[in-house]
Write a structure and sequence with these properties.
This protein is α+β, with helices and mostly antiparallel strands. The protein contains eight helices and five strands, in the order αααβββαααβαβα. About 40% of the residues lie in helices and about 10% in strands. A hairpin with a 2-residue loop joins strand 2 and strand 3.
Length: about 220
């Protein structure tokens, strides 16, 4: 049974934030493994039965670049050349790819915890299907699907477009959804709940995953 995040979990992330360079990280690789990777792999295993039982089933893969995002940043096209992410990020997804499918996201920072669900960067075909579904029912389906996430404090990101796309009714009740190119709901970073540091972590996170799942069920059914 998952016993909770270790005491050094946030300590390591804080120290990494203050020492974001290869020399420090290389000297602390064993600490990274013991304080971050090993407990998060145990957490993924502990949550696997929960997320696999959701509708649709979500994948929980206990490996880096599976359900745990890699810590190394892609700095090729960024002005920020610091080599490491200073947070840990887990994803449980329903679809073919963890980065291109609806998913549940758990994000652990040095100073707080956040979570969310949905799908980023809909391609042209997916976006058309989403907009057609929203227009067909006036947004009732997506509103119902996001109710559980909203109840947990996960709110929609701001729409990417300032106007409703050409060909759609700008006066529609669903106009805000039609201005989106992604469907993502997430919380602000919050103070760590004590449950995450003990044996109540799995029940606590299970409630979150269950509450977020309807967002992904809707997206999976509409854009798959």
């Amino acid at each position: 049974m998952f016993a909770g995040l270790p005491k050094d979990f946030t300590g390591f992330l804080k120290d990494l934030s203050n020492n974001n360079d290869k020399a420090w990280f290389d000297a602390n690789r064993e600490r990274y493994q013991a304080s971050i990777v090993d407990p998060l792999m145990d957490l993924i295993v502990g949550l696997a039965p929960v997320v696999e039982a959701l509708d649709p089933p979500h994948k929980a893969v206990p490996k880096i670049n599976g359900s745990m995002r890699r810590i190394f940043r892609d700095t090729r096209f960024s002005k920020d050349k610091t080599p490491y992410h200073t947070h840990a990020h887990l994803v449980f997804w329903c679809g073919d790819h963890p980065n291109r499918s609806p998913g549940i996201h758990l994000v652990f920072h040095a100073d707080g915890f956040a979570f969310g669900a949905g799908q980023w960067g809909l391609d042209a075909d997916q976006l058309l299907k989403f907009r057609q579904a929203v227009e067909a029912d006036g947004g009732a389906g997506i509103e119902a699907a996001t109710a559980g996430a909203r109840a947990l404090g996960a709110l929609p990101d701001q729409p990417e477009l300032t106007r409703v796309p050409k060909g759609y009714d700008s006066g529609s009740e669903s106009a805000e959804w039609l201005r989106r190119k992604s469907v993502v709901l997430r919380t602000q970073r919050m103070q760590y709940p004590q449950e995450l540091f003990g044996n109540k972590a799995i029940p606590y996170l299970s409630r979150i995953c269950t509450g977020l799942a309807e967002v992904n069920k809707y997206m999976f059914s509409v854009v798959a």
